[in-house]
Amino acid sequence: MKKLICAVLAALTVFIAAGASAAERVMLPGDKNIEIAAVQSVLKSRGLYSGECSGIYDRETRAAIAAFDPENEDGAITLDTLAALGLYSGKTASKSGIIKKDTPMRLKASSRGTVLAELAAGTEVAVISSKSGWSLVRLTLLGAEGYVKSSCITTLSADYSTDMTAPGRSLARGEESSDVAALQKRLAQLGYYECAPSGSYGSVTYMAVRAFQINNSIECTGVACIDTLEALFGDSAVPAAYSSADRSEGPSLYTEGEPLQQQLAVYSQLFLGKPYVLGAVGPKAYDCSGFTRAVFAHFGFTLPRTAYYQGYSNTGEKIKKIAQLECGDLVFFNTNPNDSDRCDHAGIYIGEGMFIHASTMEGKIIVSDINKYYWRDIFSWGRRVID
What average pLDDT values come out for the chain (387 residues) when binned by 10 residues? Predict the structure, then answer.
């Protein structure tokens, strides 16, 4: 596995750093690959191609290329062809990435954009830019580009070696220190930690350490012990993009006697990636209040069914400011400013400035930064169900 990772990263590094060499590559009749499918999709949108976007460069595709560019005598698809079709920008890509799950690549940064191709989980891409939840990525054969949702990409460093020094002692939940910040920074570099390093070892860091341990065949404790730190800061550390671990399996995620709020925050992260479906209450899919209700029910707490009633009920102490939130608090947001209801959306604060929720926009359960401008500006209040 580690040899495979090194090979992939080396190839991606060469592709990103020496993009000019792609100009020497061509795609010709008879070839078959995902970038030809993207070309077929654009030709089809222009009314020049009526076949299937199969990725096979057949006679019908050749005729469409000839109609698009009559001067193209041999039918070769080059970077110039891609650029003319709007599939290549020529911009420099500074990062590499791995597609985390099957997802469509689109011509525009919109869910309504023309689907160019379906990217399978594990597809290597070069990341050119990211904005408003979308990333412009470049495929690694010839260089066809398109947009995918940023949440579907694990961004990688070209080199996983590190000049950072590993902390010389074990670290565990509840600690706040510069050593924890260094731990978080290294976890982020490897794709396990998606928050800004805070120096606070909460449930998010705990789950990131646990995922690293599972993926690197280390005893799964959630504690950054010396063995874990040595592996984490070593050059052979396996990044998150190659993890096959199931969050819902393996050792117990929490220990009896730990604060119930911490147990709840950790348990809630087992639901990450579950689909969002309006009105769903599990176990295969959830809406926002169905998710919060299911998590709290696991610990013996009964919440009202909807976000409105969860937020406006007298369940627990009302928390008025984000700065006053504690791990395990319910959080509510006013996502629809056109009505008088300020509890349109619900989630669970899990510490380190993050909350977990069933997202309508992303279509699944995700972790978001509550201090980012969107969530910060529409935050209504929290409720402390667990005293």
Answer: 46 43 70 92 94 92 94 89 93 79 91 91 84 90 91 66 81 90 88 80 88 88 93 86 43 61 88 91 93 94 94 92 95 91 95 91 88 90 93
User: Token digits for 386?
Assistant: 């667990």
* Given the residues 53, 220, 327, 357, the one annotated as active site: 357
- Catalytic residue chosen out of the listed positions 152, 195, 288, 327: 288
The sign of the dihedral angle between the CA atoms of 72, 33, 59, 47 is negative
Place of tokens 């400035």: 353
The DSSP call for residue 57 is -
Give backbone dihedrals phi and psi of 359, rounded to 5 degrees, phi first. -90, 125
* Count of beta carbons in the 10 Å neighbourhood of residue 135: 22
Q: Look up the pTM and report it.
A: 0.56
Q: Using alpha carbons, select from 194, 360, 285 the residue that is nearest to residue 346.
A: 360
Catalytic annotation on 288? yes
Tokens encoding 261: 């709020």
Predicted local distance difference test score (pLDDT) of residue 242: 47
Q: Is 357 a catalytic residue?
A: yes
CB 199 within 8 A of CB 178: yes
The C-alpha atoms of residue 74 and residue 61 are separated, in whole angstroms, by: 13
Which one-letter amino acid corresponds to residue 198?
S
